[in-house]
């Protein structure tokens, strides 16, 4: 009988942690006898109840005794079962599928005190109290209801003991041993009889099997992980029942869900009335009003949970369609997912990192799992477990994306739909729709919840963070396994091991197996020196900084078994910590950022100097390594951090901040550098070539700001200025233009600034366009720069714009040749006179130019300066004629620049032709005029208060 | 435009400050041949001005007609092609660029541009001046690789291409390059020279200069002619006619550093050091080069220091500046210097006053 085998294990476990007691007791019991008894149950109740009532109460009136009593009773039940009736497994299943809920009347019996067990595959089938029972080997879950028939069957035996004496005749230990012995014999028999599906019986045969696999929990109750988490996961899975099993089988009732809820919350709050809590054992059995109180309790929780459960009922699948389990490795996440899914009747389909995780393949796979039912033998619905979802970033993202798509597709349809509709919908979508929805539970497992790939998933999924199981639980399990394997260990050693591995049961087991193979006993003192796998724990930078800044508290217990001196131990610890993190740059930055805030004793700053020297060395080293690419040298970085730790470590808790200021400095200075570069390029080359961008800040900006905002300038209309002031203004505008500085209204200003419109009311802030005044803004520094009034700025802006257009028209020639205008004009004049021979009258040309310059809207035809980069067609043609005429002088001063050459040649011929055709100035001039484009400037957002019609010719005057 | 630009000498004859050098250069050029040149000296001494004047002397006014170009180069470097973009100023006869803007890929720029110039060598009617001039700015910031690659190309293409290198410190230019060039050191102008220039400008601008005023500006300007002229113009803008005791507006960042120095002198503690760090960051954020911050800080501290400490402090400043150049995070080293100074100074205070 395979069912019995786990019994001894369970007992062991039971010993170790007594609070876990209930389940082990009931758990191994094969459901068969119960089922039969349950089937019989409706017949007998009324007759039996009073009698039992009478019998039981006195027995349990002695509270102190009851636990053992109860324990014993359970054992007896077990023993009884072993001998008991057995129904074929398949039969049993069928039975329960067909089973209908018991009539309500069983509930009506006042004698609710009796605990009778009453089984159902589905909790909904039971009303009233029940205990979930899982068969460890098959993972079948049944719900046992307390009912009286069983009691009737058993009472006799119980009574014998219960009534004969308050104490048991034999000592408890003896009883236990006997039971164990019995069970063991049974187990041996059973294993010899059917070897096929017994797990333990494999032990002698397959010796190579890893302990981790061998002793992996098979049932929900065996799970080592945190009870609360387990239940939450189970609850979540249960919420799928109505959706997944909906049409075929009765879904899990609200009641069950709520009671599951209740348990979890009870567990969470250490709720004493919980039937799973060990402390309340006695009360549960003894108090006559148990049923009442339970009812009350039930009612309460129901009242609270009602809206919730109703909702969940209606919507079918739970709110969060994806469950995300996270926690450090070895805590049993994968195991939990598998066990829980199996427990709830799903077939687990696992996708892990070793599978192909590209988006397309995974989509097909998920669709396959989530929407189809296999027609093969195993027709259980599937539950998808995506393991290590955070692992591969590139590919893992594919999985996340597909899941998100499915979840979002789900959200679109109305939430109030019935299961059937949903089912249909999904079926439809299977056929045609691309938008697939999730209709099966999906459990994702990750180590790092905050992996960037998981960011979107975190929002839609129900997240459970695994906490470490308590050391005692791990140890008891280890002990049990050691016993099983016949390995001699002490619980102290096991505790140490568990602590050492941070309760990573996997690594514990591997270590133990390894030692067992070597025929060595686990030595307490040698754990650190023994070849015990130490995990690579990569901790966050914050933890590392904390370790560096904070002296470790003198941990007595740690010191006791870390033999070596504390300093070297500390060194090793820190070294491995920092090495595992790997990002030395950020660690040292963090130290630099934070160490001055520490309160270390340093009268003459020598420590600080030392620290900064170390940091400097680390910087030099980093730079050297990066330059020469000698990565092996990086190993010396951690030791620097450790020496800093020696200098700085304090007992009190440091206040650590993430190092931001260096990054801030980098980004801002880059931005400013870009501004400067852009500015530098805008400035005409004859000025900018003399300056480098660094020099701007160093030499130029401060005086320039002074020069640009003179205190003497009066904000009055231009015509009111004196001659001298006008000169000053002209000079100022000249400077601004040559350094390509303008004023610009700041964008945050709601009203667009207006330059010609002198509306004083318009609150606009004009600031320098390359924001050069930013460069002298230092924190806590007041500069005495004069700031011009807004009106003045507007005047300046206007003037600058005007000047710019002027310059554009007259060409940049003045700037380039760096000659005063007068000089140039004469030069032009001279050239023009020589060009006289070339059929163009100087006078007309000169006057034309002057008038043009006055109107400033038309590009001038100054052709004395071939280097101007502006070439309207007329200008080119003109220049070319001259060039043509004066071929001899073009050698040095007027050689057209390289880039122009080709087109110049081309144009030359054409213009020559045209000029051959009509050589008179009278014809040339109007042609020229026609060709001149009219320049105008449009200010966006500009509204002129007064509009008046203007004729084109007014512009030309 | 500013006076700095307005009164910049255009020809070698107009040069006021380094007249001797200018005449030598003129002679050099008029003898029809010109070696590679390396101009070095502090900023604001007139290197660039001299170079421009020299170019004008060689090529005439056409050298002044420059256009700005954003050039792209595609360089085949073995397996991959490197895309480079750089702004150049070029006239018919010369190209001017700052190769260090290309960062660590400056090597390719240097090689490419010289090859390119050698390829289309200008052919003059007279067959003379058949070379182009390449002006490279900030050679001291070139990477070592670029400098190495430069020296061979310098020789190979010397027939068609002359180099004029310009940098602040010749010590950062490799020996090999220095020996291939005619090194010309441009001193910072002495205060008398600065005064002369200022008075010249004053005369041109028709300004009344009170006696000693120009000297004050010259003194303040730290022998930097550009700065002198700029602050002269600033004074002019702020107040004219000049008064003899008129305040000469200081550079903002220099003021800020002197504030820092005062802070350091007031208190020496890690807490204060933390505040100083914040302020140094402020300076660095505003693109003040860290070397200059350190130098200026030392300058300000020395002003307030006892004579017997000066030597030691200078030593440590040099020490940390060296480390700063080797390293990457300037803030670490500046801060280390400040800490060292605090430590020395505090020790000194305790020793003196008990």
Automatic annotation (TrEMBL), chain A:
Q: Name one molecular function that GO assigns to this entry.
A: ATP hydrolysis activity
The UniProt entry, under Pfam families, shows: AAA
Q: Where is the AAA+ ATPase domain?
A: 319-472
Region annotation Disordered: where it falls in the sequence:
1-88, 271-313, 414-434, 844-873
Q: Does the keyword Membrane apply?
A: no
Q: Which domain of life does this protein belong to?
A: Eukaryota
List locations, semicolon-separated: Nucleus
Q: Where is the composition biased (Low complexity)?
A: 27-42, 274-289
Q: Does the keyword Kinase apply?
A: no
Which cellular component, as a GO term, is one annotated location?
nucleus
Basic and acidic residues: compositionally biased ranges: 69-78, 414-426
Q: Keywords of this protein's UniProt record, alphabetized?
A: ATP-binding, Cell cycle, DNA replication, DNA-binding, Nucleotide-binding, Nucleus
Name the residue ranges with Acidic residues bias: 1-13
Q: Can you supply a Gene Ontology BP term from the record?
A: DNA replication
Q: Which Gene3D superfamilies match?
A: 1.10.8.60, P-loop containing nucleotide triphosphate hydrolases (3.40.50.300)
Q: Where is the composition biased (Polar residues)?
A: 853-864
The main location is nucleus
Name the family the entry cites. Answer: Belongs to the activator 1 small subunits family. CTF18 subfamily.
Under the subunit heading, UniProt states:
Heterotetramer of subunits RFC2, RFC3, RFC4 and RFC5 that can form a complex with RFC1.
- Spell out the protein name for this chain: Chromosome transmission fidelity protein 18 homolog
Species? Rubroshorea leprosula
UniProtKB/TrEMBL annotation, chain B:
The UniProt similarity line reads:
Belongs to the activator 1 small subunits family.
Of the GO CC terms on this record, one is: DNA replication factor C complex
- What does the record note on quaternary structure? Heterotetramer of subunits RFC2, RFC3, RFC4 and RFC5 that can form a complex with RFC1.
The function of this protein is:
May be involved in DNA replication and thus regulate cell proliferation.
Q: Name one Pfam family in it.
A: RFC_C
Primary residence: nucleus
Q: What is the name of the protein in this document? A: AAA+ ATPase domain-containing protein
Keywords assigned: DNA replication, Nucleus
Gene3D superfamilies given in the database record: 1.10.8.60, 1.20.272.10, P-loop containing nucleotide triphosphate hydrolases
Q: Which GO terms describe its molecular function?
A: DNA binding; DNA clamp loader activity
Set out the biological process GO terms recorded for this chain's protein: DNA repair; DNA strand elongation involved in DNA replication
Instruction: Show where the AAA+ ATPase domain sits.
Output: 33-192
Q: Which domain of life is it from?
A: Eukaryota
Where, subcellularly, is it found? Nucleus
